Each structure stands twice: as structure tokens, then as C-alpha cells.
Amino acid sequence: MAKERKRSDKRVAERAKPKRPGKGAATPRPAHGSSADGPGGFVTDDRPGVVVTVDVVLLAVHDGELAVLLVERRRGPDSGAWALPGTVVGLDETLGAAAVRAVSARTGVAAPLGRLDQFATFADVDRDPRTRVVSVAFVAVASEAVPPAGGPVASGRWWAVKELHKKKGPAMAFDHRDILATGVERVRSRIEHTDLATALVDEPFTLGELRRAYEAVWGTTLGPANFRRKVLATRGFVEPTGATRMVGTGRPADLYRRGADAVLHPPMLRPASSR
Q1: What pLDDT does residue 173 have?
Q2: CB 37 within 8 A of CB 76
Q3: Where do the domains of the chain lie, and which CATH numbers do they carry?
């Protein structure tokens, strides 16, 4: 009888023990206001083995310069450094939807979904000291540098890309300087072969405005007459609206809108000096 009671007590004790999560299982995110340090709101002991995130290089022409939207980190690691808008991808979320959410939630700026371009994956083992993070990088362009409204964990600002490459420029978090450089080169290449540059200006636009967008992205000066000839010789690139606009003194400038062809034949090749 004593042995049977011991066995019964042992079975009851085993049933009372809390079950441990299976290997590789992720614990749900803690409630808002807890000590979660991310990424994705996981606390230190509850992070999954690998976290998938998106980071977005959002570019615009601001004061004649190519600018990128960055957010200032308010918590570690790299607190006070500037980062690309990013977020952890939800279980039922597409990568593109996560990219748009990252920009709007972190900065209040709505990213143009139709111009989002997935261009690279960054997966170095030690790129984030908190856990293994694999980031899918997107690039997008906007027709204006809309002032950011800020978000719950970061504040946004448009930075001239050239300022970020200076030795005394602002510090950037993680490997985001490399992601930015790769994204900028992607756009420099795409405006050679596609109509992407027309998304950097508001419609209708003058050919002078379109030329200045090219100059900002490529970081060079283009001859107005030669640029005009190339644009108008590329079938389907732009279409005249029939309207004009006064630009300074002299004759009014013709206004154009995006053409029907997204791929340029022949391409608008950048000068060798800007490659």
C-alpha cells in the first residue's frame, strides 16, 4: 500500500509540472510596457532562433539633393544612432506589406507600395547583437520628402545621402550604412533602364525638374539640351500634357507626364564620371 501511494503521489507531481516549450518554439510577445528589448518585442530569454525583418531605403529629392528617410533609435543597441525604418515580419504578413508598415509606423510617412523594390537580403550572423536577424531590404522612391510624424520607438528625419558618407557624418545602426549604399546603387541603375525617375517628381513636370532628379540620384550635372534630346527620343518615356508653366524668366516650359512604357529603349545611361 505504501509503495502504491508513493507511485500515485509521483504521478500527480509530474502532472503538476509546467510543460517546457518544444525545441525552437517561440514564446508570445510580452505585453506593452514590459522589459522587452526586441527585435519584435521578445524578451531576452524568449527570442526565437532566427528573426526575419524588413528594412526600407526610402529616397526622395530634397533641396536638390538625394535624401533618405532615417529614424533615430531610442533604445539599445545603438541607441542614438540613425537607422532605416524596419520591423519584424508578422506571421500572416507579406514582405511588401511589412515594408510599408515599417515606414508608416516608425515615421508616419506612407511609402509608395507600387514603387517598392526588394533588392537584397542581409544575413551576417553577428549583424544584430541580440539574436540572429535576417533582413530583407527594400528600396522605394517618393516624389517629395514628406516631413515624418514620428513613431512609438523612433523619430524620423530626411538626411542628404552624401552627409551619411562623410567621416564626421551621423552614426548609423547595425549594418544599415551598407544596406543604404546598396539601395542607392540599385536606384542609380534602375533610372538608367526604367521610368523610375518620373516617380521622384510630381506630375505634371518639366523636363528641367526631371533632369534635376537624375542629377540628384547620379550626383552629377547633365547638359539641359542633351538631356532633353535623349528623353524625347525615348519612345513612351514621357508624354506632353499640352500645358506650360512659367519657370523663371523667358518662355514657359512644357509640362509632361509619365509615358506608357516602364522600360526605356534606348536606356538613359549615366555619365562614366558618376559610375
Answers
A1: 96
A2: yes
A3: 44-191 (3.90.79.10), 194-274 (1.10.10.10)
